[in-house]
Amino acid sequence: MIEFIDTIISEPLKDIYQGLKNKAILWKKLRYDIKKYIEDLSTELDEFSIHRSNRLIRLSKVYIEPRLVDKIVSESYFYDYPDNNQNLNDLLKRNPRVVVRKHYVPEDNYKSIQQLLVEYNRIVILGQPGNGKTTILKKIVLDIAANKGVKAIPVYIPLRNSSLQNMSVFEFICKQFKNYGIDNAELVGSRLLEQGKLIILLDGIDEIVVDDRQRILEEINSITIEYPKNIFISTSRISSYNGELIKYKEVEICEFQSDDVIRYVNNWFSDDTKRLGLLVKIRTYPQIAEIANNPLLLSLICIVYDFDLEISSRRTTLYKRCIECLMRDWDAQRGFRRVGNFIKLDDLKRISILSHLAYNLHVNGKIYFDLETIDSYLSDIIERYGLCRQDIPLVIEEIVDHYGLILEVSKNVYSFSHLTFQEFFAATFLAENRIFQNVDFKFDFSPFWEEVFVLCASILPNSSDYLNILLRSKNESSEHIMLAGLCLSVDPVIDKELKKHILRLVLNLYHNYTSPQMRDRAQYVLVRIDDTFVGQQILKSMGVSKHYIDNKLRGAEATNENFDRFKFFSSTILPSQDNKK
């Protein structure tokens, strides 16, 4: 039961039935109806589904308190995977690719939404797609229903559904009260607004239909000024908000950190085997860890893993699903349709544009780019798809505003939101155009290119020709052999005998090289292909069970401390004393 309701509605509504003979009965019914409204709204908002999944997820079960900062920090980046400096140095020596970009925020700058509500009653929460902005608003309603947090009557307004297209905020409040069975909705809504007893949650400023945007923003500002005692919280993607709301405190929602990811996965899975198994996968593969800091994509990873998809061997499938989720399904699932030059293209053309951009960035060794830089990259393909060269800034702006695949990291400077996405799109371009067949093509063995070449093997319908070209190009040198071995880690379609040949070559490097660095590298490659049948046989021949890692972790709590104790790379997974039968 919501205990505080009587105290906040008695003052504005105490005389609403004054003079009526049955006022006691009517008053009791009104109190019941308002309580039931909050409970029913909370129940509705507690359940959600992700990306075509039939599984209903309870927000209250998986929710992780997001970190908010009251200073916008989206332009502040540093490289910090993992947090421990010694681990970072060790990983850098082995493979610089494991370093990923994250926001940097001093720990004492983080605040919860409840802390911010103590200081402000007008807040706009800004963030990237899938960062959990909507989730914060829904959790506020759940907390109110559970007698926690702010003591006010919630009104949740999803702006993406054109909720305010033909009505004012006040009219929406009255309509919602009426739909939930509250009698005299107009009078009740008016009294509660006047006395400041409402918390109005306006979800998705960036998703307002373009034609209505100006009017609705003016309407929100108007009701905010007219009824200043109430609490108003709005959300928007950061790139689409230009300070239109008057006297709103701007805060930014930050990405998940490693401990948030661990707690989220722990909340998601009741099965310890799956829970620990996924945490090992995330920690083992920086490419997966990099996108796991986004709550929406982490939810997708959990769903995929729950269906027993081998993320380590089919990362490309995971990336495709994540990209589909950002480009189309996330909006479609919520009944929202965006407009623009990019959205009107079909999926193949949109992916083609992003692939052209990513490959050219990689060829030129770039992560960051400005509009002038990419003009030469995209002009031909843009025109081929019926757009003008002058449309390129609008296309990039649209991708930034709506899809979360590209971010504006500082004024007029952009990058893919995750390096993993740039690598995936670059690999898609490499595979679909079969550039590796060009006579002048040379494999680049810098860490910057390694993941692109590995993903290409998984994207190709048959990668046998690709791997044969790779091995022949330098007469099976150690670098080519190692890269071919890593390509097997993504479970490509490949001739059986070629697979065995590559594995024998990698095993020979492990057994025959005297250089510790080369042995470590060969060992690391063999561990990466542990999920394949042949790879398991090789590990067995080395005296190492494929359940080695699981046995080490089994029974232990999945905490940061435990992950710090295990470096999920070859020298730790396969210690020397275990290498002999």
Computed CA radius of gyration, to the nearest angstrom:
27 Å
Shape summary: elongated
Major beta sheet summary:
7 strands, mixed
Number of helical regions:
27
Terminal-residue CA separation: 64 Å
Going across the biggest sheet, name each strand in turn: 6-3-11-7-10-9-8
When the domains are counted, the total is 5
CATH class of the largest domain: Alpha Beta
What is the fold named in CATH at topology level of the largest domain? Rossmann fold
Structural class: alpha/beta
What is the CATH homologous superfamily assignment of the largest domain? P-loop containing nucleotide triphosphate hydrolases
Helix content: 40-55%
Report the β-strand fraction as a percent range: 5-15%
